[in-house]
Amino acid sequence: MARSHLTLAALATSAVDDLDVVSTSKFGSPDGNDFDAALLTDRDGRHLIIRVPRNPKAETQQSGDLVALRAISTGVRTRLPFTVSSYVGQTPYKATRAVVYDFVYGNKVRLRDLDAGETGLAASVGAAIAAIHSLPTSFVADAGLPVFASAECLRSAVSLMDRAGATGLVPAPLLGRWEGATEDATMWQFQPTVMNNSLTAESFLAADGAVTGVLGWHGLRVGDPAKDLSWLMGAPVDVADSAFEAYHSVRGSGDRHVRQRAKLYAELEIAKWLLHGTDTRSTEIVDDAVGMLSAIVDSTLGDVVNPIGARPLPTMAVEDVEALLDRTERAV
């Protein structure tokens, strides 16, 4: 059951010394949300957010967020063209805790909100991601947060690919596509960067066509910058083009294969969904994942213009195609 905004306001006064709340209102959707949240206004007109996790997953994310926000110092924040929320206070509540943050202004972005062009929201998003990736990696390491070399990023991708392949549910040409990408050494010659590691369209807040804030820092680490860009593969091509062009205008073109790796990570997200389905023995999730994997094959088979790696998908013999169709029909 959702906690009322009045209850949350009372918790905020316990979390923050001398906080004088003059108004409070519900924040976010009461259903389908991992947190109970309220928007608060204090006597000085300052706006705050209080959040209480509803489940263990949300509690873990909140803990990660706190570590990350404390690591992002004032000096680091001045390098970013948007606002990152600040921790204000916390108080125990039942088996969890309520945490108060400064409010970040802006409207949550949806994928369909992104528009192409040099001055569109997609370009602002691309520039915002580039700013994150341009931060010094030292503050992440100093905070004891994960730091991964490029070889470790590759091993992680291969491990995920192998686990998904072991289910027997990944179409053969798609496995070949992934193997070609992971075997292309030039794709993995990149400099690891600071990364958010959990970006989606809804991670961004925007106003007047520009990014004003980025939410959700629980995955902060040093690793493959392409992971932060992978969600853009679900956008229309012209929107993704605008975001990547803005990204490269900030960071340069040193990482020539970042978009190819982003495409690989986007496809491997479906492999994760498949594994989640097999781990939880959910036929519905497995069927959904198999359908999406088959759709990738349909859209990429013979795509010699934009392969992930240096090699296009292998040409399949007639008997291989028949076997693939037979396996897909059985899986569905």
List keywords for this structure.
2 domains, 5-stranded antiparallel beta sheet, 332 residues, Aminoglycoside 3'-phosphotransferase, Chain: A, domain 2, 16% strand, Phosphorylase Kinase, domain 1, 3-stranded antiparallel beta sheet, globular, alpha+beta
Give me the secondary-structure topology:
Elements lengths: L4 H11 L5 E6 L8 E8 L4 E7 L2 H16 L2 H4 L9 E7 L2 E7 L4 E2 L12 H13 L4 H5 L7 H16 L6 H12 L9 E3 L8 E4 L2 E5 L6 E3 L2 H4 L7 H15 L6 H23 L2 H18 L17 H14 L1
Antiparallel strand pairs: 1-2, 2-3, 3-5, 4-5, 6-8, 7-10, 8-9
What Rg, in angstroms, do the CA atoms define? 22 Å
**Which architecture of the largest domain per CATH?**
Alpha-Beta Complex
Query: Helical percent range?
Result: 40-55%
Spatial ordering of strands, largest sheet: 1-2-3-5-4
Oligomer: single chain
Strand content: 15-25%
Please write the string of helix (H) and strand (E) elements. HEEEHHEEEHHHHEEEEHHHHH
SS field, number of helical segments:
12
CATH classification class of the largest domain = Alpha Beta
Distance between the termini: 37 Å
- Structural class determined from secondary elements: alpha+beta
* Count of structural domains: 2
Mean pLDDT: 90
In the CATH hierarchy, the third-tier topology of the largest domain is known as: Aminoglycoside 3'-phosphotransferase, Chain: A, domain 2
Estimate the global geometry from the Cα principal axes: globular
Largest sheet: 5 strands, antiparallel
